Each structure stands twice: as structure tokens, then as C-alpha cells.
From TrEMBL:
Pfam family, one: Arginase
InterPro entries: Ureohydrolase (IPR006035), Ureohydrolase_dom_sf (IPR023696)
GO BP: putrescine biosynthetic process from arginine, via agmatine
Keyword hit for Cell inner membrane: no
Key words of the record: Hydrolase, Metal-binding
Protein name from the UniProt record: Arginase
CDD domains from the UniProt entry: Agmatinase-like
Keyword Metal-binding (UniProt): yes
GO MF term set: agmatinase activity; metal ion binding
Length: 465
């Protein structure tokens, strides 16, 4: 075998970045098993330091696999292996003058901002006083114009204020980021499906009767550019939250979590939020080329200080993007996570009680981020990034009802629903069922029903004994 020892290995700048992640070659060697260190005799100090960083994991699936590959090679083969690996890592990086760093746009376009221009009142055919508008003809509406929870429609902040709206449900038809995309159709599919705003038999509370709910229409996005649309989403969600209504946001891919949480937090900057994130994927990847996507929304919120890691609770994690290093990052940032491995080891009831306790201990208002992938694909076929082995609707809804009844709720989002993946009604029904569970909890709290794990006695026991 020929060893290409004169081959360009890595630029001085790139190597300095590798080495900067660790204090010395000795600390890097300490991370490497002794049986592997014996194979490193031909490597330079910089190459050994590189092995001690996380950089090799860009091309090797795990550190265990890396050490296995090194151990089974001769020192000469190890030298070539590390040389090629460094070159592959360097090839991942941005190349000034070669790679595109900015998306080219046409600022001369006459409709450059056309997607987010709000219609002025004076241009509307019929001027009206502010307040929600009922668009239904019949008292018992089973057809006609579909709205979230069968609720009246509001389109301006003045409508929300005049109507003393408590919950405003808005769609965000975003269909980008990773996974299977059909988020643009999610809001209208869920509007057309029943279940939301109906009587919850477990608590015998009807949120549609107790709460003042409106459909706030859809928030516009730029369907050609995720980056251009998120600022407008932020502005609109902040506008909703500033009226005192609780925003319920239906998407859309999980990149929306970033502007949504940021806006709700900005509406009350002196009050911390506790974010409870349900989903299969941890969404805190740190090395992606796109800085805005579903896969790094959590990372941005924590790293930018929008929320503190200790104010984040994650539920249902099991996606393969989360490596051991990923969980170490979550731990280092004080994030409390509850994986499906934890459910398997401890049982759902114990895990659920721990989540409820963690959510209430901080005393903060809650923001619930529901990625539909938290459910097992057998009950949520229409998840954009589905992963087998998830929770059931029977497990998730009691938790949602409790969280929303036993704590103040500042906002909620339901993300990553891709209706084209499910030709039946099951996914849409279960998505709306989760929304209704939280609406029920908010209605219970309004009625003063805040005792732990409340269930109506008439539904628990037939009373015939």
C-alpha cells in the first residue's frame, strides 16, 4: 500500500480550529483508548488533537466506530486514514470565493414583499367594527366554511382585543426544512376535521363553550425562502401575544419553533417561559449549513439565550440524529429530557409524573411545542419526520390536559403535520385531539379545576357498586 505522505492534509486555519476545541494533545490522547493510542505513532500532534475533537463524527457515525476502525489498522494505514478523514472534514467547510454564502434575490422586483402585505382597512369592501365574525349559517355547523374549533374568525389585533379573545388559533403553512413536507396544507386539513373545541369526556369540560376562541386565519410565509418568512411570523405571533390572547399555532415545519417561542417570550420579557417540547427529534443540531431549520430550532433558542436550557423540557426523544455528544450538550445546558428509552426503563406513568413536576416547579408560564412525531407512526402516519417507537395518543393527551390545567399557558404550537402522508382521517383526528386536550386544560383552569390529574367522577366510576 502506498502512503500519500506529501498529500495536502488540512489548512493551517482549519487545524487551528480543530486544536482550539481542546487544550492540548495530551487531553486528546486521554480520550482515546490505550489499545488505539498504540496505533498513532506516525501521527503528528495536530492529527492526534483532531481525533480528540468532535470533527471526525462528521464522517464517522460514532466514536466507537472510529476507534474500531483505528484499532484494526496498522500505524501506516492509520496515518492514511486520519489524513483522508481530515481532508473529508475540510471539504465540508465553506470555501470563500467558491461556495454561495448568500441567497441571490431581486430587490428590483415590484412585489418583493408581496407575500406579507396586509390589506388596509380602507380597501375592504365593507368596513366593520372590530371584533370576531361568525361565518357559520347554522347553529349546529357540520358544513360550510371550516374554521379551527368551529370558532368565529378574527383577522386583526383589534378584533382580538374587542372580542376579549382568550385563545387565537392561527395556521402557518410553512413547507420547508427536512423530512417529508406538506405543512402548507396542515392548517386547512385540521380546520376541516372535527374534534377541536368539543367536550372532553374525561374532565366533562367543553372548551368551546368555556373559552372565547377564534380562528385568526393563516400567517403568510415566503414559500421560496424559509429565511425571509420567519421575521414576519415573529411579528405576527408577537402581535397576537400582545393582545393577551394565547397563541395556538398550527404548522408547518418545526423551524417555526424559533420565531414562535421568541415572539411569545418577547411579549413578556421579564417573565421566563418553560418550554415543553414534544417530539421524536431533539432539534439541536449545531453543525448544519443552514442556520434556520427544523433540526436546529432548539439549539438556536438556547444558544442565543432566548430561553435558558434549564427552562426546556423535552419529551419522547428517539430520533437517530441525537448522538451521545448531543445528549451531553443537552446535559451541559441543563436541559431536562425524557427519551423513549427512559419510558422503557421506568414506565410512562413515572415519566409523566416527573414531567408534570418539572413543568410546575419553575412556576413559569408554559409554552407547549407539539411535534406530531411524538406519537408512534401507527397513530400519526402524517408526521414529517416520523420515528417508530413513539408514545400513543392515550399517553400524550392526559399529560397535555394536566399541563394546561395545572399551569398557566402562554402559547402552543402543533408542528410537522404533513397530511398528504395519510389518506385516512386518523392523523388529522389525533392532531386535533391533542389541541383539544390543551384547550380543555385551559378551560378547566378558568373554571378553577386545578387539582392534580382531575377526572370527572361520573366518568371514572359507574356508581352501581
Amino acid at each position: 500500500m502506498t502512503i500519500r505522505t506529501n498529500r495536502h492534509l488540512v489548512s493551517a486555519l482549519a487545524l487551528s480550529m480543530f486544536v482550539a476545541a481542546h487544550s492540548s494533545t495530551l487531553s486528546a490522547q486521554a480520550r482515546i483508548p490505550s489499545e488505539v493510542r498504540a496505533k498513532l505513532e506516525l501521527l503528528t500532534d495536530d492529527q492526534i488533537a483532531f481525533l480528540g475533537t468532535d470533527q471526525p463524527l462528521r464522517v464517522i457515525p460514532s466514536r466507537e466506530k472510529l476507534y474500531q476502525d483505528l484499532e484494526r489498522r496498522t500505524p501506516e494505514q492509520v496515518e492514511q486514514y486520519v489524513s483522508d478523514m481530515i481532508e473529508a472534514v475540510e471539504a465540508h467547510a465553506f470555501r470563500p470565493g467558491i461556495d454561495m454564502a448568500n441567497i441571490p434575490l431581486n430587490p428590483e422586483a415590484s412585489r418583493f414583499n408581496g407575500f406579507k402585505v396586509v390589506q388596509p382597512e380602507i380597501l375592504k369592501e365593507r368596513l366593520r367594527d372590530p371584533g370576531p365574525v361568525n361565518v357559520h349559517r347554522y347553529i349546529n355547523q357540520w358544513a360550510g366554511i371550516p374554521t379551527f374549533a368551529g370558532a368565529p374568525v378574527a383577522v386583526t389585533p383589534e378584533d382580538l382585543i374587542a372580542g376579549n379573545v382568550e385563545v387565537a388559533i392561527a395556521g402557518i403553512p410553512q413547507s420547508m426544512s427536512s423530512g417529508s413536507r406538506d405543512g402548507r396544507n396542515a392548517p386547512n386539513v385540521l380546520r376541516a376535521m372535527h374534534v377541536t373545541g368539543n367536550l372532553d369526556v374525561y374532565a366533562m369540560v367543553d372548551p368551546g363553550a368555556v373559552l372565547n376562541i377564534v380562528d385568526y386565519g393563516d400567517i403568510a410565509v415566503d414559500r421560496m425562502s424559509l429565511e425571509r418568512g420567519l421575521d414576519h411570523v415573529y411579528d405576527m405571533v408577537l402581535q397576537m401575544a400582545n393582545t393577551g390572547a394565547v397563541p395556538f399555532l398550527v404548522g408547518g415545519d418545526h423551524s417555526l419553533m424559533y420565531p414562535n417561542v421568541k415572539a411569545v417570550q418577547a411579549a413578556d420579557p421579564d417573565q421566563s417561559l418553560t418550554v415543553v417540547h414534544f417530539g421524536a427529534n431533539y432539534n439541536a443540531e449545531r453543525t448544519r449549513a443552514h442556520t434556520i431549520s427544523d433540526r436546529d430550532a432548539v439549539y438556536r433558542l438556547v444558544s442565543e439565550g432566548v430561553i435558558d436550557g434549564s427552562d426546556l423540557i423535552q419529551v419522547g426523544l428517539r430520533g437517530s440524529q441525537a448522538t451521545r455528544e448531543s445528549f451531553e450538550w443537552l446535559r451541559d445546558n441543563d436541559v431536562r429530557y425524557h427519551t423513549m428509552a427512559s419510558v422503557e426503563a421506568n414506565g410512562w406513568q413515572e415519566v409523566m409524573e416527573q414531567i408534570v413536576e418539572e413543568a410546575s416547579d419553575a412556576g413559569n408560564p408554559l409554552y407547549l411545542s407539539l411535534d406530531v412525531s411524538v406519537l408512534d407512526p401507527t397513530e400519526m402516519v402524517a408526521a414529517g419526520r416520523a420515528v417508530p417507537g413513539g408514545l400513543t395518543i392515550r399517553e400524550v393527551t392526559p399529560l397535555l390536559r394536566r399541563l394546561c390545567a395545572e399551569n398557566e399557558v402562554a402559547g402552543l404550537e402543533l408542528m410537522d403535520f404533513a397530511p398528504m402522508l395519510d389518506l385516512s382521517y386518523v392523523s388529522a383526528m389525533n392532531a386535533n385531539y391533542m389541541l383539544n386536550a390543551c384547550l380543555t386544560g385551559i378551560a378547566m383552569r378558568k373554571q378553577g379545576i386545578t387539582e392534580e390529574n382531575y377526572l370527572d367522577p361520573t366518568t371514572v366510576d359507574h356508581g352501581q357498586n
